[in-house]
Design a protein that fits this description.
Length: 377
């Protein structure tokens, strides 16, 4: 029993592929339309909290994800300056429950590959180089246009096509991501043996410096700065900027700088935030994941929230036989307050950094949200 037989999904990120897996597993026909020409082989790392790992288990990929990444417990805070002393060792809340680690890091392309292979195994049809460009609804039918041409009729279209979602605009939702005032440099580098959990440095020339282990020999490092126009910065210039901005940080940063000097790839993005108020659907078209909400990665809940969107939507669609208003009401009741809490807390943490508020209770806010996330979506 499913509420839909044929579903189209725009995008191929974690929200898109999770929704595809859940629907295909229940016997629905699923077509994924991705504008990119192929599965991306580029990227840095990603931090995944326990509530994300819980969803991976439901998708049947937890063991593959665990084996491809690096699980850990807790968070270290270090001080800038000589020796980079550890000033606090914070425990993590097990947001996925006692059966899963508190957190893990992994290489983003590995996660994309694992989800794609699971979806393909279940019969999901993924169309690369295929951008959803038009939507028309007529009764219980959604007519989808891809690359300017008709692509078929579906019972549902899920817009999981990211921050700059085309589907969001096609259904008349005007809310879009706004910059928060911070930008982040990221690089995928080798892991020193001493790095066994995420570590953050507050203070110094940037807002936050840190790194997260992603494998036995790898991790990703990042520097969060005041957002700047970095358009046109080439790879060599990007590496030089990270080298210069990280000089105040010692400890494992010494090895990170060696990797940067040797040519480690660097990318740069701005932090954004937004949340679409209810409803996220217009008829039989709905947006989830980054299309519906985004926030700075200050509490590392972005991927988890996208996965929870897909999980809740998939659970409702596969446990009912009708796509009606009561389904949408339950979906919004379970997802929007939770996503709101994460977005607001993530933005607040960044704002405190920008304002230099040393009296702010950042640990209290982080742990408060973690305890909320420990309750299943």
């Amino acid at each position: 029993m499913t509420a839909v037989d044929r579903t189209a999904i725009a995008g191929s990120g974690v929200a898109a592929m999770a929704a595809a897996i859940l629907l295909a597993e229940a016997g629905a026909q699923v077509d994924v339309f991705e504008a990119k020409p192929e599965l991306s082989a580029l990227g840095s790392g990603i931090t995944l909290q326990g509530n994300a790992l819980r969803v991976f288990d439901r998708l049947g990929v937890w063991e593959a994800v665990r084996d491809a990444g690096y699980v850990f417990e807790g968070l270290n805070l270090r001080a800038p300056g000589p020796g980079a002393p550890i000033v606090a060792e914070l425990p993590d809340v097990k947001t996925g429950g006692p059966d899963y680690p508190a957190a893990m890091g992994m290489y983003r392309p590995d996660l994309a590959r694992i989800l794609f292979e699971r979806a393909e195994q279940l019969g999901v049809r993924v169309h690369w180089g295929s951008k959803v460009t038009g939507v028309e609804q007529a009764g219980d039918v959604v007519r989808v246009e891809v690359n300017g041409e008709p692509a078929g009729e579906f019972d549902l279209l899920i817009g999981a096509d990211g921050l700059n979602s085309t589907v969001r605009g096609l259904i008349g939702i005007e809310t879009t991501p706004e910059p928060t005032g911070m930008g982040i440099w990221r690089s995928f580098v080798s892991r020193p043996a001493e790095v066994t959990r995420s570590e953050l440095y507050y203070g110094g020339p940037v807002y936050i410096a840190g790194y997260t282990p992603t494998g036995e020999d790898t991790m990703y490092a990042f520097l969060v700065e005041k957002a700047q126009d970095r358009v046109g910065v080439d790879d060599d210039q990007a590496a030089r900027i990270m080298l210069e901005e990280s000089q105040a940080y010692q400890g494992p940063w010494e090895q990170i700088r060696s990797d940067l000097a040797a040519g480690a790839h660097v990318n740069y993005t701005w932090f954004t935030s937004h949340i679409v108020e209810a409803p996220w659907n217009r008829g039989r078209v709905v947006i989830i994941g980054d299309a519906a909400h985004s926030c700075p990665p200050t509490i590392a809940q972005g991927a988890a929230q996208a996965l929870e969107d897909a999980f809740v939507l998939g659970e409702l669609l596969t446990s009912r036989d009708t796509l009606d208003q009561s389904l949408w009401d339950e979906f919004h009741a379970r997802r929007i307050p939770r996503a709101h809490a994460v977005v607001e807390a993530s933005v607040q943490l960044g704002r405190w950094q920008i304002e230099g508020d040393r009296d702010a209770d950042a640990p209290g806010l982080i742990f408060g949200i973690a305890h909320k996330m420990a309750e299943p979506a």
